[in-house]
Amino acid sequence: MRMDGDGSSLSGPAEMLVGRDHDLGLVRGFVDEAMVSGGALLLSGDAGVGKTVLLDAAARQARGMGARVVRAAGVEFESAISFAGLHQVLQPLLPGIDRLTDPYRTALSVALGLDRGAPSDQLLVSNAALTLLVQAAAERPLLVIVDDLPWLDRASAVLLGFVARRLGGSRVGFLGAYRSGEGSFFERGGVPHHDVQPLDTTAAAALIEARTPSLAPRVRDRLLAEAQGNPLALLELPVALTGPQRSGAAVPELLPLSRRLQSVFASRVETLPASTRLLLLYAVLDGTGDLRVLTSATSERTGMEDLAPAERAGLVDATTGRLVFRHPLTRSAVVELATSEQRREVHRALAEYWSDRPERRAWHLAHATVEPTEDVASLLEEVARDTVRRGDAGGAIAALLRAAELSPRGYERSRRIAEAAYLGADLTGDLRDVPRLLEEARLADGGRAGPLVAAVAAAHHILLSGEGDLDTAHRLLVGAIDMQHQPYDVADPTMIDALYTLAWLCQSSQRTELWKPLHRALGLLKPEVPDQLALTLSTMADPARTAPPALGRLDEAIASLDQEADPVRIIRLAMTSLYVDRLPACRTALRRVLHAGRDNSSLTVEIQGLVYLGRDHFAAGEWDELEAQAAQGRDLGEAHSYQLLSTEFLYQRALVAAARGDETAAKTLTDEMILWATPRGVGSYLSCASHARALAALGRGRFEDAYRHACAISRAGELASHVPPALFVVMDLVEAAVRTGRTSEATAHAAAAHEAGIAAISPRLALLVKASAAIAAVDHEALDLFEEALAVPGTDRWPFELARVRLAYGERLRRVKATTEARTQLADAIDTFERLRARPWTARAGNELRATGLSVTAAGVTGPASLTPQQREIALLAAAGLTNKQIAERLFLSPRTVAAHLRQLFPKLGVASRAALRDALTDLPPG
User: Fold this and answer.
1) 3-class secondary structure, 325
2) Shortest CA distance to 877 belongs to which of 859, 865, 854, 895?
3) Are the C-beta atoms of 429 and 464 separated by less than 8 Å?
4) SS3 letters for 176-215?
5) What's the whole-number mean pLDDT along residues 793-814?
6) Alpha-carbon distance 502 to 491, whole Å?
7) Are 148 and 75 in contact (CB under 8 A)?
8) pTM score > 0.85 for this model?
9) How far apart are CA 517 and CA 41, in angstroms?
């Protein structure tokens, strides 16, 4: 990493930027704007095209405007050390860290290694860094310049990408540069970008003429042809020529450009004294640019005075108090010219210097070690564990794989490779690499079955990718668990991960017999089953029978999510909450996980966050949001072979299509689900497909089809064991049974739901259970049961189900000639169905309303009686002259909600303004 803080320019003056008027104007315009209102810009281009010179020009301009400039550049040998880049960027600003709030100060201090403590989640660290930059810019504008973005360590690159996208209005500018075609963990999406092109023929000729006017015309033409407009080649190629060659004698005929440029840098380094090259080697392999490191870590053979030849040669700059290489290729040349033993010797010295920084020490020792050494491998494994806790799964995988290379014992080597495979399957989304790594793990241990973590990784791969069936994954994982030493240790994280994975497999199968080995393993787990694992099993295995006693503990766990930084724990709590309707309370944490996954390239976490948010969106009637997120999740899943999670998004889209009456889409989506799930034994998605098909059939009044699909999930009269979706189709089955004349089946199923006590799980299930009993009951009992259902508090969180219950109630009221009451329930149902664009349900309710004698237009019900109770109250207050704000304060609503209700009720009353409300409400019956 290099940095010049507020120091001087690293290159020549702006007037030397030949042929760069357009690029320079763009960069200057960016600086002018960013110093006032913030922003970010990325420069890309081939190596040597002039990106760094443009960065220098931007730095000069910003300093001329009185702004502060912080500069840094990625370094290959520091790219494995998490947050190393961030430390260098923020170092000049660290005196201001004490002005941050306690959570931000702690998060940033721990991430930068300034303090010890529990690591914070990536989003908190990112926001802390952003706040520190904005805080610094409050004193004077700040320009952050980062060259060589691809060489930044992953954690820093992700965080800086997060920051760059959020600088609007801050007086902080971010200017970054990277070589075209090079990958990077810096997320470039949403950041303006400019591609720096090679110089045109005229500008290239002017540059070479200005720099080396003594070149013979034939030589100049040859260099212009081979440089192809690359400024670095134009400037450096003449340096490599001898005097006679510059005059036109014996110029080499074929010199590939890339090799020629590399040789230029190497030759300039080769001319330096050996002690200077060694000192530069220390600087390159350390990567911090800190002169104190060079002073303390170098051997007696070198001293700081040995930098002078490199400075005179223009290869480095140390005038700012930090050592800065003028071009990245110089660093590469320094390393290539050193022997392997010299590199190892320097790494050993740096490891000793960084003895108080475990991560740096471990990596330097790893580079210094040739033969397998368990001590170093163990240190790297510890680094990997710390790194994954900080959210950098990619960095952890790199550390584990290097630890595996250094492992002397086959079993340890196999285990570490398998752990890297598991992280790839579980966090980063590198599913395609998992089989290769697992095969390497198997061969590393002489072809034996391998450690438990290998089985966990393989099961994850089979489950997520769909490349095998659930029975195979189940046998593999159960066999590996059974081979472990008994009793199982609850402190073994691999065993806990194995049990979670086995639970996920069992839940996906929905077959009771597959749960037995898991319960057997739990009995061998000592001293006791962890609370969260016990909670998860209580709610996801057979919630109808085991969930109620666990709900209090689950609610306590969810209440602590605001302080939870571990994305895996958040996802597991969301999984625990799914079938007991606790997802609304997890929403904020899930969104945090979603952002952290995107900013940290943790693909599995991001997709799982989308899964649970999508389920909650459907329940909450936020179907447009669901469709957008489902499309995004489906694209991510298919791009990375996450077939299981991709199928979940098919289900979510099928539910919306079914509810909105798009039968073609619903059938296509459920056909695809069934085609994928059947050969793999994924019973959960077969149930999901049946759910969507039953919902589509109910909306269209095809009750025989609806009954068949609902019974495919759970037979009438029972809540199928270990089939959680059975809880949410209770009313579907009962309604379809009544409509097809199966009254005894309807009564039995409603009774089974009541006796199971699932109404105690959530307001939604209480609503559905009571409404099912009402639908199955005779008329004189049904009305009271419907009233009980609608009196359940908190059911407005599930608007679609609530509207369906109102529809069923309105139908029964009309049948017993309670016309006025029927109209109220039906009008409320239509209002919700219209908002959700649930067209078949709107049509069903509209037909019932017409049967009461009330007119229904294409836009819905009309007349005062069509108003919902809340609309009626708002209309009366508006007619009395209250403003939207006054109405909102009285009814504890937002003014925006009041305005939305007024827009909906105006057409129902046939009026276009508030002034006409009083007359339109004249015939409104008393409330």
Assistant:
1) strand
2) 895
3) no
4) EEEECCCCCCCCCCCCCEEECCCCCHHHHHHHHHHHCCCC
5) 95
6) 18
7) yes
8) no
9) 56
